C-alpha cells in the first residue's frame, strides 16, 4: 500500500516513516503489513515494513528497505522473518532484482535478521555483472559502495 502516516502499520514503523517521506518521493514509498486474517478486520497489523522502490509506473529494479518492525505484543514469535520472506517473494514476483538496507544506529536486530536471510555487505558484493549498468539517477550507484547490506533476488 502507499506509505503515509495514517496507513495501517504506520505506528509500528515509528519515526522512520516520517523521515523517509521527507527524504523520498511518496510515490516511491510502500508500506507492507502483516495481519492475522483470523482477527477482526479493524485489528491492528502485527508487523510492517517500509520500502522505497524505483520509478513509479515502471518495473522497479531495486528496493531500499528503510524499516521492518513487529508490534510490541507480537515480538519474539518469528513474525519479522515471516514478513521478510513474504516481502522478498513479492518483490521478486514484481520484477525487483536487488534489495538494499543501509543500517543506522539501533538497527542491530534488523541487520542480524537480514544477514540470516542472505543479505551480505554491500561493500563486498555489488550487483552481478549483468545488473551493473544503471538507467540514470533512479538506480543509486552509490549504494554499491555504501556500508550497508545487499541481496540480489
Automatic annotation (TrEMBL):
GO molecular function, one term: acyltransferase activity, transferring groups other than amino-acyl groups
Gene3D superfamilies: 3.40.630.30
Protein name from the UniProt record: N-acetyltransferase domain-containing protein
PROSITE patterns in the cross-refs: GNAT
Entry superkingdom: Bacteria
Stored Pfam families: Acetyltransf_1
N-acetyltransferase domain location: 1-140
Amino acid at each position: 500500500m502507499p506509505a503515509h502516516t495514517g496507513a495501517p502499520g504506520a505506528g509500528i514503523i515509528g519515526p522512520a516513516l516520517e523521515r523517509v517521506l521527507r527524504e523520498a518521493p511518496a510515490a516511491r514509498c510502500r508500506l507492507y503489513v502483516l495481519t492475522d486474517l483470523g482477527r477482526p478486520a479493524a485489528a491492528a497489523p502485527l508487523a510492517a515494513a517500509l520500502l522505497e522502490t524505483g520509478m513509479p509506473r515502471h518495473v522497479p529494479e531495486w528496493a531500499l528497505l528503510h524499516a521492518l518492525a513487529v508490534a510490541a505484543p507480537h515480538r519474539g514469535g518469528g513474525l519479522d522473518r515471516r514478513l521478510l520472506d513474504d516481502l522478498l517473494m513479492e518483490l521478486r514476483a514484481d520484477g525487483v532484482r536487488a534489495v538494499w538496507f543501509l543500517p543506522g544506529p539501533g538497527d542491530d536486530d534488523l541487520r542480524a535478521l537480514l544477514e540470516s536471510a542472505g543479505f551480505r555487505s554491500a561493500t563486498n558484493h555489488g550487483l552481478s555483472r549483468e545488473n551493473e549498468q544503471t538507467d540514470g539517477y533512479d538506480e543509486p550507484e552509490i549504494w554499491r559502495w555504501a556500508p550497508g547490506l545487499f541481496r540480489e533476488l
